[in-house]
From TrEMBL:
This is PLP-dependent aminotransferase family protein. It comes from Paenibacillus antri. The keyword Transmembrane helix does not apply. Coiled coil: none annotated. Residues 37-392 form the Aminotransferase class I/classII large domain. Homodimer. Keywords: Aminotransferase, Pyridoxal phosphate, Transferase.
Length: 405
């Protein structure tokens, strides 16, 4: 029987990252493709103990709960965010099934078919997927290493009058860059001027290799502007515990204007009623009886060492044809090949050699830079990195010979 599906889902693209992961199931392939945290960082025993304490108190954790999330966890989260300078309250927090759901809900309540969303160039692939399912249209804002270029941002705000601007200003996915304070302030000011909500996606912000060198979030910049006018804010801040605790807990959150969160809660009711109360209660048990700050410090140190080892090995021979950034945190390194190279074609040879990465092309909403690629430096055990990069080097050499000889 021929099935008829919605035009929206038929137009939607599958995740390029997930498709690549299917190609790398062989144990012989070392993958730098997935946005995966190090499994060595997962506090498995502490999580197991937290679940045991939750279930020891009875069966309540298995019951339905409120859409907004477990109140006690939201109460704890207000203090956790306040310690980072992010002021909010229990009634201005929505717990979600990972921050990916928070992105999806935000787009669902803001975007009508044909609406424009302004994004960085390049931007997070799964955000583009969510926007596609909302029938929205992404318009790129020219960006450099410090963030969106204010002149181009204002021109596109004026031309398109979008309802929102979506950004990852701290250790972005895929580029790994960090916006300057000046660019954050410029976006906060311009978004208010043109009536566009700022959606700040911050899943990597805690993984700053130099913990003392913190930059204020866009949410904080907007709050400073809002304090003068006494409004409810113009920034939606999205976060997650997937990178600092474990992805399987699937607990993210959104903080921001009360009217936006009310609409997101309404959309969430239609989606899944609420996220897992058992997972939220286990997370609450974990963070209230355990040194989360110390664990985040452990992850910072581990990832800094892995990044330094990775970039030390990313040189010599054909690897010198790559141009790459040195991230100050997060999980990704963004690299460029010579302009005539096509990273998607190189990937085929790389997989044959036994290594994988993500071509940069799917991260662009507009005309892509086809010579770019994203490398994850957190998941692969350090002992495997030199050999894996040697395989990448061989693939680059093969590509050069086969395409240009």
């Amino acid at each position: 029987m021929e099935r008829r599906f919605s035009k929206t889902i038929e137009r939607a693209q599958t995740s390029a990252v997930r498709d690549i992961l299917k190609l790398t199931q062989s144990s012989k392939v070392v993958s730098f493709a997935g946005g995966l945290p190090a499994e060595d960082s997962f506090p498995t025993e502490a999580i197991r103990d937290a679940y045991e304490r939750v279930f020891a108190r009875g069966k309540g954790a298995m019951q339905y709960g409120v859409t907004e999330g477990v109140p006690a966890l939201r109460e704890w989260l207000t203090g956790f965010l306040a310690d980072k300078g992010i002021g909010t309250s229990v009634d201005r927090l929505l717990l979600t099934t990972g921050s990916q759901q928070a992105i999806d809900l935000a787009f669902r309540v803001l975007i009508d078919p044909g609406d424009v969303l302004l994004v960085e160039r390049p931007t997070y692939l799964a955000a583009l997927q969510s926007l596609s399912l909302a029938d929205g249209r992404a318009v790129e804002v020219d960006s450099d290493d410090e963030g969106m270029l204010p002149d181009d941002l204002e021109a596109k705000l004026r031309t398109h009058r979008p309802k929102a601007v979506y950004v990852i200003p701290t250790f972005s996915n895929p580029v790994g860059k960090t916006w300057s304070s000046e660019r954050r302030r410029a976006l906060a000011e311009l978004a208010r001027k043109y009536g566009a909500l700022v959606i700040e996606d911050d899943p990597y912000g805690d993984i700053r290799f130099d913990a003392a060198n913190r930059i204020q979030t866009l949410y904080e910049h907007d709050a400073a502007l809002g304090a003068a006018s006494g409004d409810d804010g113009n920034a939606l801040y999205l976060g997650s515990f997937s990178k600092t605790v474990a992805p399987a807990l699937r607990t993210g959150f959104a903080a921001g204007p009360a009217d936006v969160l009310r609409m997101m809660a309404k959309a969430k009711q239609a989606s899944d009623l609420h996220s897992s109360a058992a997972d939220q209660l286990a997370l609450l048990e974990l963070v209230t009886g355990w040194d989360l700050a110390g664990h985040i410090g452990f992850i910072r140190d581990m990832y800094r060492e892995r990044m330094e080892g990775f970039v030390a090995a990313l040189k010599g021979g054909p690897l010198d044809r790559l141009r790459w950034n040195r991230p100050a945190g997060g999980m990704f390194l963004w690299a460029s090949l010579p302009e005539t190279y096509v990273a998607a074609d190189l990937l085929k040879l790389a997989v044959e050699e036994g290594v994988a990465f993500v071509p940069g092309e799917p991260f662009y909403a507009g005309v892509p830079a086809r010579n770019t690629l994203r490398l994850n430096f957190t998941h692969t055990p350090p002992a495997l990195v030199p050999e894996a990069l040697a395989r990448l080097s061989r693939a680059i050499e093969r590509y050069s010979v086969e395409v240009y000889s």
